[in-house]
Amino acid sequence: MAKKGPLKAAIYIRRSKGAEGTTKAQLGRIMPKIKAMVKAGKIQPIDFAVVGRDINKKQKFFATRDLAREGDVFNEGEGASALNSARERQVLGELLRRMREGQYDVVLAESLDRYSRDPLDFATVALDLWRKEGKQFRSLTEDYGYGVGTSDQEEAIITTLLMWGGESAKTAISKSIDALDKKLDKGFIGKPKAELVGSGSKGAGLDYRKAWGLMQAYGEKPNKIGTLGEKFVQNPTAIGKVFNKDNKWATDKYEFMEQWDRYVYPDGQTALEKWFNAVDTMNRYIENHPFKRAGDSYKTRDVKDVIKAFTGFLAYPAGINPSKKFSEGSKSFILFPNPADFEGRLEEFIGVTEPSTIEGWELQKIPVQDAGELMKHQTQYRSGK
Fold first, then answer.
1. I need a labelling partner for 25 at 20 to 30 A (CA). Which of 144, 199, 252, 258 fits?
2. Helices 247-262 & 208-218, crossing angle to 10 degrees?
3. Other CB atoms within 10 Å distance of the CB of residue 305
């Protein structure tokens, strides 16, 4: 039998993988409704201390410690997919354990799909609670929930709604992945690794050839143990000072320029030399089009369209094997078109959303298994590669 009077409630928050926002924001959205329920005597006062993942994301999750905390807010965190089994969610498991011990009568969530978009999967971990023990799993958005006086017919309708919602989510995720691959096919990946003239940054128009020459003059530090072959420049503080930068700037720039200098194209030019030429080409285009001030030109849609068409090369002149979020692209090693090869024709890319329609603009894709051993800056290493 369901308990009468103010119910002891727990709050369950979770953000799905691929969704926007935070669980902290989710809790903020439902807080007024929770407080109203307390005021109306529907539920007992809530202890808003958090069990599970740190809602402020300042502390790494440690199950032994964080699942033993006291509080009525159970935070599964961000990126816990609703399409994965509910049995895999540790915070939900702890909440259900406490429910079975009698600590809670009802769980409140922003919507029913926070428990799971697959109601059949959720039933494997919680069916006994609402069918046999009279517990409730409520939504604060919809007017239905599990164990909330629902008939078998109403429960079937809820299941159908959630199942279709789950399929919709799968389709949305699939479309999102397809969109990423289409974006990659247009060369739209990464950010140019040059501070172009007019961009407004402190280093706008920086002479990268001069920087590279100075780095070569200083030479390299001996390789450190555990650095996986990365190269380090001597005296990065002195180098950075010349360009109004810090030592980290010089260290970072040397790392990728040194690797680009090792990649040689079939015409004998290194990727680094081609990148220098590309940056020079883009700077000349910005300076000549269409205003006297480079800063005004840089802000125009014309210039932004041209930069976008060649973002891939400006970010990865030695090619790239994209991260696994690009389902198709991750199977390839990709070389991008160089803007220096289109000098005098860059206006052709203004207003163009499909750069491949311009004669000569074409990605080179090599099966990644045929590309040989790739260097760090030929991968999206920050994406877990």
1. 144
2. 90
3. 17
The average pLDDT across 154-160 equals: 62
Which of 37, 44, 71 has its CA nearest to residue 139?
37
Question: Residue 248 burial by CB count (10 A; 0-12/13-18/19+): exposed, middle or buried?
Answer: exposed
Share of the chain above pLDDT 90, in %: 65
User: Six-digit token pair at 101?
Assistant: 């011990």
- For residue 139, the number of C-alpha atoms closer than 13 Å in the C-beta half-sphere is 15
Q: Which domains are seen in the chain, by residue range?
A: 9-177 (3.40.50.1390), 186-383 (no CATH)
7, 107 in Cβ contact below 8 A? no
Residue 49 · residue 73 · CB < 8 Å:
yes
Predicted pLDDT of residue 223:
61
Contact 53, 66 (CB under 8 A): yes
Model pLDDT for residues 273-303, shown as the tens digit of each residue: 999 999 999 999 999 988 878 889 999 999 9
Question: What is d(CA 162, CA 173) in angstroms, rounded to the nearest whole number?
Answer: 16
Cα torsion at 67, 68, 73, 74 (round to 10°)?
20
My answer on whether omega of the bond before 355 falls inside 30° of 0, hence cis, is: no
Burial readout 271-286 (b: 16 or more C-beta within 10 A, e: otherwise):
bbbbbbbbbbbbbebb
Burial status of residue 173 (CB atoms within 10 A of its CB: 0-12, 13-18, 19 or more) = middle
Which residue in the block uniquely carries the two structure tokens 């530090």?
Answer: 221
Residue 363: other Cβ atoms inside 10 A: 18
Residue with tokens 């991260």: 323
Does the pTM surpass 0.85? The reply is: no
Q: Which pLDDT value is given to residue 167?
A: 53
d(C-alpha 77, C-alpha 75), whole Å: 5
Q: Are 111 and 140 in contact (CB under 8 A)?
A: yes
Q: Supply the mean pLDDT for the chain.
A: 87
Could you tell me which residue, 271 or 163, shows the higher pLDDT? 271
Confidence of residue 345 (pLDDT cuts 50, 70, 90): very high
Residue 328 · residue 365 · CB < 8 Å: no
